[in-house]
Structure formats: C-alpha cells, structure tokens
Amino acid sequence: MQKRITFCITENYFKQRFSYFFYPSGNPVTMSAALLPKPQMRGLLARRMKFHLLGAFLVSMGCATLYKFGIAEPRKQAYADFYRNYDPMKDFEAMKAAGVLESAPPK
Fold first, then answer.
1. 107 within domain boundaries
2. Taking the mean position of all CA atoms in its chain, how far away is CA 87?
3. Is residue 6 part of a domain?
4. What is the DSSP-derived secondary structure letter of residue 105?
5. pLDDT tens, 45-95?
6. Residue 89: Cβ-neighbour burial (10 angstroms; 0-12, 13-18, 19+)
7. How many domains does the chain have?
8. What is the 3-state secondary structure (H, E, C) of 25-87?
9. Can you tell me whether residue 98 is helix, strand or coil?
10. Range of the domain at 77
C-alpha cells in the first residue's frame, strides 16, 4: 500500500520559493530603503517659497514689460499722432453743420 503525501503551500514556503519575483535582493526592507530616498521634512516650505517667489516675480515683470511695450507705448503714440494734426475748430464746425450740437444750431 502506498502512502499518500499531502502537500500544503504555506506562506513561508511561498515567500522562500517565489521571493525573487517580488524582492530581487530577497529582503523587502533593504530594497525599499535603497530605492526610496528619505523625504525632506525640515525647511520644505521655505525652499518651495523661494522657488515660487522668484517665479512669480519673473512672470509679473514679464507681463508688465509686455503690457508697456505692447499696449501702453503704441497707445501713447496713437494719441500723439492724432493730436499732432487735430484742429478743434474744424471739428466743431463739422459737428455744427451736422446738427449734433443743440447749443449751436446749423446755419
């Protein structure tokens, strides 16, 4: 009569047999310590604030420069060009002839 051998896969057997699939070094503690650096706990806010303040300053100066040379200066030049040859009396006479002004009726 043959004796039947029963085999039960336990957790320890599984870890010993298949650990190379999950932990190449064989030790999960040393592997995770080698791959993950320690997080910076002190001065994290101060370091990030320096970076973000510098970035915010540079972006705001860039926007101010673009507005000055892209909008304000051309607008000032357009007003200067308009009023260089502007004759208010000629404009008044044109509006008077068109009947726009109530205080100065057309002739």
1. no
2. 50
3. no
4. -
5. 999 999 999 999 999 999 999 999 999 999 999 999 999 999 999 999 999
6. exposed
7. 1
8. CCCHHHHHHHHCCCCCCCCHHHHHHHHHHHHHHHHHHHHHHHHHHHHHHHHHHHHHHHHHCCC
9. helix
10. 11-36+44-98
106 in a domain, yes or no? no
| 96 CB-near residues (< 8 Å, 6+ apart) | 104, 105, 106, 107
Q: Which residue has the tokens 């357009």?
A: 78
In a domain, 69, yes or no: yes
Beta carbons of 99 and 105 less than 8 angstroms apart: yes
Q: What whole-number distance in Å separates Cα of residue 70 and Cα of residue 92?
A: 33
Percent of the chain's residues with pLDDT above 70: 68
